[in-house]
Amino acid sequence: MSGTGAAGSGPKRQALHTQLRALRERAEWDRKTPSASVAQNSLQRAVRGTGVQGAEQFAEHWVSGWAPPLGEAEKFVVPNEDEVMLAVVAVWSHWAGECALTAEGTLDPRWRRMNEAFWIAKLADAREELDDDGARLPGHEGSLDTGPIETPWSGSSGVRNEIRGGNFYGSVFMGRDVGIAPNAAFVHGGGGRGDRFPPPPRAPKLPEWVVDREQVDEVVHLLCPRGPWWRGRRHRPVRGSTVGLTTAVHGAGGFGKTTLADLVRTDPRVRSAFGGRVYAVTVGRDVRSREAVAGAAHRAALLFDRAAPAEADPVRAGEVLAEVLERAGPVLLVIDDVWEAEQLAPFLVGAPECLRMVTTRRPSALPAGHRPVLVDRMTEGQARAVLTHGGLVLPASEVDRLVVATGRWALLLRLANRNLARQAATGADVGAAARRLLQRLEAQGPADLDRGGDRSASVRASIEASTALLPPGGPRRFLELGVFAEDELVPVPVAAALWRATAGLAEDQARELCAAMADLSLLSLDPAVPGGALSLHDVVRDHLRATARDDLPALNANLLDALATDLPKAPTATGAGLQVPAWWQTSHGYLLDHLVGHLLDASRAEAAEALAGDLRWVRTRLH
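RESULT FIELD:
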């Protein structure tokens, strides 16, 4: 077997084994689909396909020694092959939903850069412990200590989680601490209760153009104060603390707060510290009423317990969420796009072992004592990387001017990149295209955010430059998307229904138009959602709604009439002989959440009131 000895009772070897085994379990659970195999020979082929040094000699039985089940912990041996073990970790991470491998099956350079030092350091710790103990032989008599292990969240309270055999979902933190979820219901295969208690979500998939931001390390330091990188730092958050990601410019969006939060969620140090138990919920500006705030808290509770009761009162909804989080143990909860303190309040109740990370444009929405992290505009180097992503070659003078004209604003930089890449793909002179784009941007004035420049004008110029590349009628169709709710995945068939009403587009034409818009980064497409779904950045949506303000009632009416044609008619709840669309038969979850809002925006208040009180609608929404 390729290893240097059994784990014995050393905490560093124990930590390494715990991490490897937890990663293996998560990977194999996520991989268990009718079309995918978790057999050892599948792992062997994948590891050899990475091409790392020594991969050709990778043997199936090595993993049985590197990550044996908990009941066979005494069989654990410390791997000898750094590169091969890193390849195994990469394959498992890829199976678990992270972008660890390229399309060719080799190690993704970005993933390697973020993970290599982490794993090699843990291996070195385990080997050093072996040297100290003299445990060199595979037959070394010893077993893993399955007594209490202090977690990274023990802190001054002295709270300890325990591993007492059986299933658990654990993690190590740089080979020194182990965090255990005390509720076995959250473990994959945890006693058949998975239908109610879902497993931890996969790490979000980051777009290829995303660049590293220096604030990631700052957030990691705040969330995970036990790592060796923390030495010399002054502040250490206590359990239950809140880290706030906000902007240095009041009211500015598009700086990359959500993207930075996603970078943190995918960071191996964070995922290891929390055992992959990192959750996220989006609030949004449109969540204003007490019922809507309570609904946002309920959505968060459902991430942990599908049977969590819904409450109309935000205080009670916060108590329900707190109860769920108390059972969950140490987790990281990301609360994205908060606008008001009242929106955040239900998420901050109780659950001292839950760490919260909040993104907001308004620091006043954050609780007292939070640890702020300012997400400002990009550095010049980061701005150039985004602007020239994908091998886009631009004259240096145009790059310099575009960096200034976009104000190093992540959203505008990405729009500029996709605009120029789209033109380059047609054989256009990229330098000339850059100068035309600059004329549009500079005519509005540079996006000088430090001096209160007109951000809306810069957004308008960038969007208009991109929509000009759409086919005839495309700019108007894009404008019409402002009718949809904020921070939501909108089913492509629903958007297609709108365009069928406003422009007579067939669904295949609507999908082609969506793809063209996504290629220009005007919107995002999620093909993993059945039927496909699109989403808009809230800054872009704000622009669309401001531009089409006078048309929104008619657009909502067009959308409703188009969707109604796909549903049967049914008697009204009053039985007055009238017929109404059977909205409760819709297959789109988006409509179940936002149909009443669209009726109100279409100036159909009476229909909205009747629908909200219709038991057929209420029953469908509750189930």
